[in-house]
Amino acid sequence: MSQSADFGPDLVEVFGPSQQDGGPELIQLLTPEGERVGHPDFSFDPGEGQDEAEVIRGFYRDMALTRRIDTEATALQRHGELGIWAQLLGQEAAQIGAGRALRPQDFVFPTYREHGVAWCRGVDPLSLLGLFRGVDQGSWNPADNNFGLYTIVIGAQALHATGYAMGVQRDGAVGTGDPDRDTAVIAHFGDGASSQGDVNESFIFAASYNAPVVFFCQNNQWAISEPIERQTRIPLYQRALGFGFPGLRVDGNDVLATYAVTKAALQRARDGQGPTFVEAYTYRMGAHTTTDDPTRYRLSDDVENWKLKDPIARVEVYLKRNGLADDDFFASVQAEADDLGVHLREGCKALPDPKPLSIFDHVFTEITPELEEQRDGYAAYLASFEGAH
């Protein structure tokens, strides 16, 4: 299978010996030690006219800056500037690989942790902080970057993505052969969300209508405090077979492999070959959110073991070992990260508080009589405090 290969109707052949029967199921192109390895079905292709080393340096920069967003936001929450923050520490490669595999016309339906994908789509990370600070409900316009608003209801975005993909299909933007028109949709969710009814219902609809959607599951091993072993009796990617479409497991800490697999799955969708399930096998190095204490339910040895598979460190080792980046490059990324940190710290504290009545805006295109009555009642309640001592 090449990156643009037709997975074909034979799902047994799709999974093949490398994806079942106890074989080496994990698709990997860059080892934790920073060594490039081959795979029979996938290879890293940065694209026509693209310099491979430059692209990989770009991946490193994206991951390093995404991690800085995460650490700054966590610090801001600890200082009382954010109400909560959903960390992505350790999942940078899964998100950047998937985010950079997208074409401009593709549409992303995120959960509440896709800070790296948001970065790839050009969303100002300060907009993400506004949501977690509680001053807005997501201030970016999804139409500007084809990146949907964060979804707090677990798994709901999978249904949204499938419905959008069915609409794209009916608009004739699938299988035309025009690379600037053919469109894929991707839904991000975690291993915990894969147990939700919404996600499984979206699988049924996507398979039934051959919808151009990629279900991208970041299996970070924990659904808050519930380990993956209690969520499923088989590897998550194998669930797809029961719904009638291919599933693949990729090393989610390998940005090259994640990029290659997601790129192939997205192209398959654009070509009109239907849905694909991608399980990015990774690990949540931080807490579920900043209100969580993972030391209460997981072993420190597991965390230390996964630190050896750090997605950023392996790319850094690869670049240095092969003379593809010098000290000036790494220093420039660090300087850019420092500037980004200042932008986030100063910008977060300067975010204006919303006007209380703005909560009634944009609920419906035209306000309903019931909502209008609620708004006016609340306005009268607020007015009753004016002039009070």
Description:
The protein has helices spanning 11-19, 52-78, 92-100, 115-120, 125-133, 142-145, 156-170, 197-208, 239-243, 255-270, 300-307, 311-321, 327-349, 369-383; strands spanning 107-109, 185-190, 213-219, 222-223, 226-227, 247-251, 276-281. The chain has 389 residues and is of the alpha/beta class. The chain has two domains: 11-349, 3-Layer(aba) Sandwich (Rossmann fold), CATH 3.40.50.970; 358-389. The strands form two sheets. It has a five-stranded parallel beta sheet, with helices on both faces. α10 links the parallel β6 and β7 (276-281). α2 packs antiparallel against α12 (311-321) and α3 (92-100) runs parallel beside α10. The longest helix has 27 residues, at 52-78. The chain is globular.
Could you write a compact summary of the structure shown?
The chain is of the alpha/beta class and 389 residues long. The chain has 2 domains: 11-349, 3-Layer(aba) Sandwich (Rossmann fold); 358-389. The chain has 14 helices and 7 strands.
Descriptive terms for the model:
alpha/beta; Rossmann fold; 2 domains; 7 strands; globular; disordered N terminus
